[in-house]
Write a structure and sequence with these properties.
Recoverin, domain 1
Length: 160
Amino acid sequence: MQPAPATMALMARTTEPVYSPPHILWSYRTVLRQTLTVLALAGLATPALAQETRASASAKFKSEFAASDTNKDGVLTRAEVQARIGNMKVGGQGRPDPVHAKRLADLWFTSADKNKDGKVTQAEAQALLAATFAKYDANKDGKIGGDERAAAKADVQGPR
């Protein structure tokens, strides 16, 4: 399954390995894929036999958006996205350091802020969610089932 062209462009700019403390070695590509998927599909961590619908993923993501909107003005700023990403655990390896969190926030923000006004609205965030959901909904039935979930997980984890 090939990522969307915009996602590939973001990944292409982030494939070089980066220095991290010896106990945490990430590539930007790995962290980016995991972070974009976590942000865009916040609701896919459901039991293996359950199916995530477009509506349930949207509702869960709406809750994630509200939690990220710390000043409750209805939009996300780069700083809010950076703070949220900085507090996420990535691939069971801990949290990204502040430099990585800022870079990832900038990449996500640039992808989500379609009108380039310096803020991400709920509609812009939901549009990114819809595009990501569509990418993993291989059979286009409006649900992410077991096989699709496994494919999404493999895509996020990348080659091992």
